[in-house]
Design brief:
It contains 10 helices and 23 strands. The chain is of the alpha/beta class. The chain folds into 3 domains: about 60 residues, OB fold (Dihydrolipoamide Acetyltransferase, E2P), CATH 2.40.50.140; about 200 residues, Rossmann fold (3-Layer(aba) Sandwich); about 120 residues, OB fold (Dihydrolipoamide Acetyltransferase, E2P) (Beta Barrel), CATH 2.40.50. The strands form 4 sheets. Strands 7-22-23-21-20-17-18-19 form an 8-stranded mixed beta sheet, sandwiched between helices. A 7-stranded mixed beta sheet has the order 10-9-8-11-12-13-14. β8 and β9 form a beta hairpin. The longest helix has 18 residues. The protein is globular and about 65 Å long.
Length: about 475
């Protein structure tokens, strides 16, 4: 009996159907750049030859530039585009500070003259305040202070992408809107110590067996006060030869600690030469492997100074520090001026343990609580008798916690945010609940990038409706 072969049935999903190519991809058009967008790219409103109106986003341009663009891909509500010709630039571009600027995705705004760059960064804070419900531009101007900018070559932490291919090992940052790794030979932003280690890691992986080197996908490096803390993210366990090599690398580079992390697992120390530590308000605090620090010492100082200044006008005796980490702001809250009782709340167990240890040695009145504030935000009873809450959440913001604070929060709130979008959402929630936004300080820790840190002080002027 013969069995007839059936044609394979196409299944649903990407394999079963071909993606229809956008007919506009590859189209060239002239455009005048209208503004710099939130990602640091230039925005142009273009009318194509057929009358179709689109938005084009392109890099390394300034408002007023008259350029010819080629559309390259869909991007959000418009199209990404490359400049293929420059017709006119009415305003001069600043010289790039780094040889990789045209490709590297780490910076987007080196071509802006310094005064224009500072104005643009501060405008992001103004926009965030207005999106929080303060529609009056003059009022927003009074609330937003001057921009605090970190100096070049001071960023003390970075996640280097690692790619091991046929052409060798690349250690650096991904290209903008790409997974291709730029082999970072120089950088105007990172502290020189991080760049020295980058070169040493590249040389080390280049000398390894290719199968061993290919396991490593990222190196997260943090400059502490007593050396570098390095966490290598990898796909599998290092063998004995690789472990020995890593220990030698740590010795040669005088690393404080070198850890190995598989997937989302806990980092395992491969070479522990000394415990990485930092000081907050004079208190020595150990850093967990890959733990969070403010990106620059300048940025940290700007934020702690802002907290200290705010505390002069806030009669607080009992304070809660939410998303406290290892205590970047906890000790300032406890020790600046009059001493206060502080409860620090953090989800990460390693950070909680390190903060508890440092708090015990500081003789400050600090209680530390482990709690996931996204799943279990503090409730109204937790805020009874509290004068001030400070929160410094991840980029996702603190929406669930702010909903409770808006109704049951204390008289004063200090908010720190690394995301203007979620800052606007959370501050609007608090304002709707009866808080007045009295001060915002923009802090630029990610030089020449669109990222911006915001510090804010809020005072309750009425009870929630």
């Amino acid at each position: 009996m013969m069995t007839r072969q059936r044609a394979p049935r196409l299944r649903g999903g990407k394999r079963g159907r071909q993606t229809k190519r956008d007919p506009l991809i590859g189209t060239e058009t002239d455009a005048i750049i209208a503004e710099i967008g939130g990602r640091g790219d230039g925005i142009a409103h273009v009318t194509l030859a057929d009358g179709k109106e689109i938005i084009a986003y392109t890099d390394h341009v300034l408002p007023g530039d008259h350029v010819r663009l080629r559309l390259t891909q869909r991007r959000g509500d418009g199209y990404g585009a490359n400049v293929v010709a420059v017709h006119n630039r009415p305003h001069p571009h600043a010289a790039a500070h780094c040889s990789h600027y045209e490709k590297c995705g780490g910076c987007a705004l080196q071509h802006l003259p310094d005064a224009d760059y500072r104005t643009w960064k501060r405008s992001r804070a103004l926009q965030a305040v207005m999106r929080a419900g303060i529609a009056n531009h003059e009022q927003a101007e009074k609330i937003v202070g001057e921009l605090a900018v970190s100096a070049p070559a001071t960023r003390r932490r970075a996640g280097f992408s690692v790619h091991c291919g046929q052409t060798g090992v690349s250690v650096g940052f991904a290209e903008r809107y790409s997974h291709h790794v730029v082999d970072l030979q120089d950088c105007a932003v990172l502290h020189p110590a991080l760049m020295v280690f980058r070169g040493a890691l590249q040389a080390f992986l280049s000398a390894c067996e290719p199968a061993a080197a290919k396991q490593v996908s990222e190196a997260f490096v943090t400059l502490c006060e007593n050396g570098l803390d390095v966490v290598l993210s990898a796909s599998g366990e290092p063998d004995l030869t690789l472990r020995q090599g890593l220990a030698e690398l740590a010795e040669q580079q005088d690393l404080a600690r070198l850890s190995w992390k598989i997937g989302n697992g806990v980092p395992e120390p491969v070479a522990m030469r000394r415990t990485p530590q930092v000081h907050f308000s004079g208190i020595a605090v150990p850093l967990p492997a890959g733990g969070f620090l403010q990106a620059t010492q300048d940025g940290e100082t700007a934020l702690t100074t802002a907290i200290s200044n705010a505390l002069r006008d806030i009669p607080a005796r009992h304070v809660i520090d939410l998303f406290s980490g290892i205590g970047s702001f906890t000790f300032t809250l406890a020790l600046a001026g009059d001493r206060r009782r502080v409860m620090a709340v953090e989800s990460d167990l390693a950070a909680v343990r390190n903060l508890q240890s440092a708090a015990g040695q500081s003789k400050a009145t600090i209680d530390v609580l482990q709690r996931d504030l996204f799943r279990r935000p503090l409730n109204a009873d937790d805020f009874k008798g509290v004068d001030l809450v400070l929160f410094d959440p991840p980029r996702a913001g603190a929406q669930a916690q702010c909903e409770i604070l808006a109704v049951s929060g204390p008289e004063w709130i200090i908010a720190v945010s690394c995301n203007p979008a979620t800052f606007s959402r959370d501050i609007k929630e608090l304002r709707d609940g009866g808080y007045e936004l009295s001060q915002v300080i923009p802090v630029d820790q990610f030089l020449w990038s669109p990222h911006l840190e915001l510090f804010a002080v809020l005072h309750r002027t009425r009870k929630a409706a």
